[in-house]
Amino acid sequence: MTHSNSPEPRSGFIRRIWNWFWTPTAVLSTGFVLIAGFLAGILFWGGFHWSMEMTNTEEFCTGCHTMETNLGEYRETIHYNNHSGVRAICSDCHVPKEWNHKVKAKVMAVKDIYHELMGTIDTPEKYEEHRLKMAAQTWKKMKQSDSRECRNCHNFDYMDFTIQESRAATEHQRAIDNNMTCIDCHQGIAHRLPEGYLKEYKRVVDELDMTPKSEAQKDAKIDVDGIRSFLKMTPSENHGG
Asked: What letter does residue 57 receive in the DSSP assignment?
């Protein structure tokens, strides 16, 4: 009997990939593992996204006992009831839309759970004691981000000053001219301002002015002197609160 020395035809590339895909790995085939992993990934991502959105609801944000004060104050503002019928809820002002900033905000919010469990502000007296500090933390964050959450809805480029009240149009034009940001004038737009807020906001501005700036912040060219001049105005002159 003669034996041929020529090699047997090799399987095609697609056939070899197909065979590898379904080759058992211990108990399950590689293909099954990949498909199961893909489906599990979809379920995980869907669950993760659902949980992120669920924690953005007003019901979730105000579900803690310590948020009752915030809720009551918010319900008396123009962001809750207004002539346009558009309502901004907690997450619109406190949670960024951009994915990376949103995840960071959610991680940082863990501290709120800690303080809820510890009862840091669980009485009106404790809340008032911490009001200025909590406000300053929010002002600092918004100042650093150029009032990013405000700009989810408001933008100078979309404003028609000709149909605004003269005072509002004047102040908005001044803000543009001095490179100011929303929080420079609207510190108390959704919650009651603490006593001594102007002095504390000036401290926040001065502290940020002393902090080394990134290139992006340098490009913004914030007019700190203009903001300081604004903060020297009396509360009756300050129309933004």
From this structure: S
Q: State the pTM of this model.
A: 0.69
Structure tokens at 164: 């605004």
80: Cα separation from own chain's centroid:
19
Q: Is 185 exposed, middle or buried (CB count within 10 Å of its CB: 0-12, 13-18, 19+)?
A: buried
pLDDT tens column, 117-172: 999 998 999 999 999 999 999 999 999 999 999 988 999 999 999 999 999 999 99
Amino acid at 58: E
74-99 confidence digits (pLDDT tens): 999 999 999 889 999 999 999 999 98
**125, two tokens:** 């007296």
Determine the Cα–Cα distance for residues 67 and 123; give it in Å rounded to an integer.
11
